Amino acid sequence: MRSTMENSTAHAQKGVALLISIFALLLISGVAVALVVMSGTETSVAANYRSSTQAFYAGYAGMEEGRGRLWPGHPNSLFAIANFLPVVGTVLPVGQVRYILNPSPGEVVNPTNLVATNPDADFEYQVEFGVAVTAATVRTTTSISNLALANTPGPLFKWVRITPLTERAAGIDLNGDAVLNAVTPIYYDGNTRNLTSTGKQVFRITALAVMPNGSRRILQTDVSGITLNLNFASALTFDGAGSALFPPNSNVYTVNGNDAASCGTTPEGARPAVGVVNPGDDVSITASIPANRQTKYTGSGPPPPPADVQQVALAPNMQTVATLEALVDTIRTNADQVIQGPAASLPNMGTAASPTITVVNGNLDLQGAQTGYGILVVTGNFSAGGSVGWRGIILVIGQGTMTVSGGGNNSYEGAVLLARTRNNDPTGTGIGTLLPGPAPGPTLLDWAGGGGNGVHYDSCTIRNATSNVVYRVLSFREVSE
């Protein structure tokens, strides 16, 4: 009996091991399939992330091209393209749109074609400005992103749009009138944005990047030219107590505080021919001018004689040793060329179309017939002989001494300021140690020889000189589509 039961049990258990094996195989197969699917998903996610990141950096590269080419000194500056942007220093009106197009070989990129099938259509413009981009005045140019390396493809952005920023586009009520203004450009004065033309105009740069697999990113940045806040109270300014002038006895030499406005704009209000900050320096400097040359110094004062030499109030950034040194540091940071003195030449004197920002750390001695354009800062002694002249701004801040000689007939059109912030330099390089301050020390202008027709205030050359600045980023964001 027991033998029969044991045989029946054994017979009933036959095949269980096979079922367990099949189940285990199915389980392992399921896990393997899941791993394969997971791996594929991770690969897809990684690929999408890589493509999205590439699109981001392509858009960023487009924005940086736009920002870089807004600098007038850029070799491919947008200001150098005929009828593309207004003259440097003037305003781009709202409703003006500028595109930098970057098509692939054989491709046509047209952001103003607003059909739904156009992958490059610029629908974002209407979101910001309330009207379709087809209602704007549009001009285009091509990207230079493929020019850096021959046969090397550049970033795959499709277009970059440059527009004036408004309250509506920014979504910010700057003047608190509960209205988002859509027609007035925004400006930036170095501290705050405003609607009152104070500072530099703010541009919005928008870039669209599209990858071959369809990944898209739209990036935006708001930029404005760096504001140096260079305001001059007179044509020739001595910023320091006990300053001295040794003027030429030349009939053609003049110092004039009346605005020449050489670019044809409305002249600014007249300034003193010579400005001083220390009470009594106006008397001593006037006394140093020959009696028969007093009428050569004209400006906001009554008709001379005596010469128009007045005590003036300077801008805050020109009042103390610390603020003057900070001003020099700011200009040096944004300079086109910084030269270690003593120097006998400037690599780039600039042009009217492309003025330079130059800082010489130490003494500078220019000779011969040459004219510079832009901003020139000399921390040592500035010497000029022959027919040297300048169109723009000269700041002799440091040693605060300027020496002019020779029989040339050039001039300094714009403004000249001398300020002493440093002690005498025993090394001869003209740098010296800082004065204890806070007030600047005495300055000196020694103008010898029979030629040279002087210093003349000109708001146009000043404005032109301060317009050749790079554009700083004020804000950055990604636009969701």
Q: What's the short story on this structure?
A:
With 481 residues, the chain is α/β, with parallel strands linked by helices. Helices cover 22% and strands 27% of the residues.
Characteristics of this structure?
22% helix; 7 helices; 24 strands; eleven-stranded parallel sheet; 481 residues
Q: Given the C-alpha coordinates, what overall shape results?
A: elongated
Structural class: alpha/beta
Q: How many helices in DSSP terms? A: 7
Proportion of helical residues: 10-25%
Total number of beta strands:
24
Strand content: 25-35%
Radius of gyration: 34 Å
State the end-to-end CA separation: 83 Å
Layout of helices and strands, plus pairs?
Layout (H helix, E strand, L loop, with lengths): L1 H12 L2 H54 L26 E6 L22 H6 L7 E6 L14 E8 L2 H4 L16 E2 L4 E2 L5 E11 L5 E10 L10 E4 L4 E3 L8 E2 L17 E3 L4 H8 L8 E2 L10 E3 L9 H13 L3 E4 L15 E6 L2 E3 L3 E9 L2 E5 L2 E11 L2 E5 L6 E9 L23 E4 L7 E3 L1 H9 L3 E9 L2
Please provide a written account of the structure.
The chain is an alpha/beta fold and 481 residues long. It folds into two domains: 67-225, no CATH class; 236-467, no CATH class. The protein is 22% helix and 27% strand. It is built from seven helices and 24 strands. The protein has helices at 2-13, 16-69, 124-129, 167-170, 281-288, 321-333, 459-467, and strands at 96-101, 137-142, 157-164, 187-188, 193-194, 200-210, 216-225, 236-239, 244-246, 255-256, 274-276, 297-298, 309-311, 337-340, 356-361, 364-366, 370-378, 381-385, 388-398, 401-405, 412-420, 444-447, 455-457, 471-479. Strands 8, 10, 11, 12, 13, 14, 15, 17, 19, 21 and 23 form an eleven-stranded parallel sheet that branches. Strands 1, 2, 3, 4, 5, 6, 7 and 24 form an eight-stranded mixed sheet that branches. Strands 9-22-20-18-16 form a five-stranded parallel sheet. A hairpin with a 4-residue loop joins strand 4 (187-188) and strand 5. The N and C termini lie far apart (83 Å). The model has no long low-confidence stretch (mean pLDDT 88).
